[in-house]
Structure formats: C-alpha cells, structure tokens
Amino acid sequence: MSTSNSAVTGLEDFVAHKIHRLYASYQAGNSSARKQLSDLRRAVGQNPAKNPLAWQYVISPEEDEAFPEDTKYRQQDQPTSKELAAYSALALYAVHQHSEQRKMHAAGHYFGTAVGQLVSRGTPSIKRRFDSLMQARTFEGIMYHARTLVQLLKQQEIPFDYGKFAADLAKLQNPKTKAQVITRWSRDFTYGFSYQPKNTDEN
C-alpha cells in the first residue's frame, strides 16, 4: 500500500481540521463535542469495528471537508493505513485533551520533540518507554506505548502536532517508510531534550 506525499499532506490537514473544529466546539461547551471526545478516548488501541461511533466520526464527511479522496478505502473490509492512522491519532488526541482547557494539538511541534521535552523535565525513565515504542514490531504495540506517552505528556501539558503524527502513523504501517519515521523521531527527541528556551529578560 503506497503512501504518497500528496496523500500524507491531505491526511495531515484532515486530522488538524478535525481537531480544530472539535476543540472549538468543546471550548464552547457543546455536549456533542464532549461525547465525541469520550467515544474517541474509548477507541484507543481498539479495532474500529468495536467502536463504530468513533469510526463513523473519523470518516464521515463534514460541512467543508471529507476524508481525503486519495486515502479512502477502495471496497475492502479493512481500514486503509491512512484511515487507521487518522482514527488512532484522533483517539490519542481525545486522551490528551481530556479535561484540558489549553489545546493539546500544536502545529509544528512534533511528537519526538514533545517526548524529548518531557524527559528533560526530570523524568529520564520515560526514555525507556519511548525506546519501546520505537522498537515495537506491530502497529498495536506502537499504539500501546504511544498511549502511555500521551498520558504522561498530558500530565505535563505538553502538546504536539497531531496532523503530522497521523501522517507518521500511516508511514509506520509501511515497511518501506517505517525507518524514516523512526530516524526522524529519534532526531526530534534529541532536539526536544536539549532545547532550552532563550531568556528574553532584559537586565
């Protein structure tokens, strides 16, 4: 199953758009948004067939954007890699956003960088969890470790880019592109761990 650059870009935009819409509704106190987040949280790590409400929310068309045409299923019983990536990313976002007022999606702030920042805050044992995710052989294993890391990021209120994360989850399901993601996450982790914000105070 191919993962073209155009499809990945479409997937990033689609997931980010879903999150922006959902967060705005959640902030407005919309009960439907709270229910959607609750349904998505229960979907983490589970087959979409076991969570039809969450699955329908991910793939259903909205007012101005439907699931990217080039990533849709083609009359097959199982979700495509990109559909599963969108479903998984949105489910993890729902875990991350739970009870938080600040948006836990931050465009341009990547997953590996966020985990590096988390570890730099004095929790070195978390690095082992990140290593376990990087070494996971199955998508289910990746999601298991990702959920743990997202819960820890939530505790420290560290957001990351869920659009880019969804694109990475799609690539991780393809043996030809998995290594690219692992390499970049390692690099991003190092940057996040070593990065120190500049002190802008004037003396």
UniProtKB/TrEMBL annotation:
Report the superkingdom from the record.
Bacteria
Task: Show the InterPro entries listed in the entry.
Answer: CRISPR-assoc_prot_Cse2, Cse2_sf
Pfam families per UniProt = CRISPR_Cse2 (PF09485)
Q: What is this protein called?
A: Type I-E CRISPR-associated protein Cse2/CasB
